[in-house]
Amino acid sequence: MPELPEVEVVRAGLAPAVTGATILGVEVFEHRSLRRHDPLAGDFEALLDGRVMQGPVRRGKFLWIPLEGAPRRAIVAHLGMSGQILLREPGTAEAGLLRIRLHIAHPVQGELWVHFVDQRIFGSMAVDALVPALDGAPGGLGTDEPLVPTQVSHIARDPLDPAFDAGGFAAALARKNTDIKRALLDQRLISGIGNIYADEALWAARIHYAQPANSLSRAKVRTLLAEVRHVLEKALAEGGTSFDAQYVNVNGASGYFAHSLNAYGRQGEACPRCGTPIVREQFMNRGSHFCPHCQRLRR
DNA sequence: GGAATAACCTGGATGC
DNA sequence: TGCATCCAGGTTATTC
Question: Is A138 among the catalytic positions?
């Protein structure tokens, strides 16, 4: 499932191919993939035709490509659970479930197809207006402009963003009367973390997923944040987590971080720290993996 | 206003 | 073999 490291791999892979490229044409094969596009802003294809793209930007799991010229707009993409953005030579047949195709021309790379492939249609693309970031800092990784798409403006900065407010995050947790994992998955508090990395960071910090967020000490919050950053950076260095064909980079290659997981997907296997079997429980309509010995619920 | 839950969505795995 | 059911989970709308 694409979380921050997987989306960052895609952003970095797209950058050299789309920055400065002109959009020659757009084909939409599945209109449900435009669920986040506001038709009142204009027709998706017409808004993109002939426009020149700038370098792609990422905040959390959201990716956007600013367009040159006025009014300031961007192509916004979210990969959902199964979305992929692939670079293809024109004429290449797409084996997956192709939803949207951009035909682009880059001054150096030449003509390319940018494919948005999405099996479950939880992901989407849209053209959205760029608005000032509330804190005045660059909108995300990949830009110096303090601008974000409208639909990303409510999303918190991710923990790898230099402008991430660690103090503000700790203060928000102290006010949260909810489970810590629910808080970690709340993209309005901290972005980029999904089910996999939430389980991994909680395991590393020795915190039970259902521990009330406002019961954590400041020191424990610092530890948790450090582990969140560590697991995200490690996953990024290994190219992201791939369990199957649902996550690949822009060239279609898988990442290797699945081999480094300590808790997620390892129910029944020995905890790498103490040997106690990892347990999987239902939480928020998804699986939570934890070590019942290392991660005890403290009331 | 904050927190919890349901709904969206489809291919693969499983059970009968 | 074929059909029905369950499962995965990010985001948002709805409900409490």
Answer: no
Catalytic: A206? no
Does the predicted TM-score (pTM) go above 0.85? Answer: yes
* Strand B nucleotides, any atom under 7 Å to a protein CB: 2-11
- A253-CA/B2-C1' distance, Å: 42
Residues whose CB is less than 8 angstroms from the CB of residue A68 and which lie 6 or more positions away in sequence, other chains included: A51, A52, A53, A54
CA atoms lying within 13 Å on the CB side of residue A71: 10
Is A280 considered catalytic here? no
Tens-of-pLDDT digits for all 299 residues of chain A? 788 988 999 999 999 999 999 999 999 998 889 988 988 888 999 999 999 999 999 999 999 999 999 999 999 999 988 889 999 999 988 777 889 999 999 999 999 999 999 888 889 999 999 999 989 999 999 999 999 999 999 999 999 999 999 999 999 999 998 999 999 999 999 999 999 999 999 999 999 999 999 999 999 999 999 999 999 999 888 877 655 555 567 777 666 666 678 998 888 889 999 999 998 888 888 889 999 999 998 87
| Strand nucleotide closest to residue A199 (CA to C1') | C9
Residue for token pair 């959390």: A60
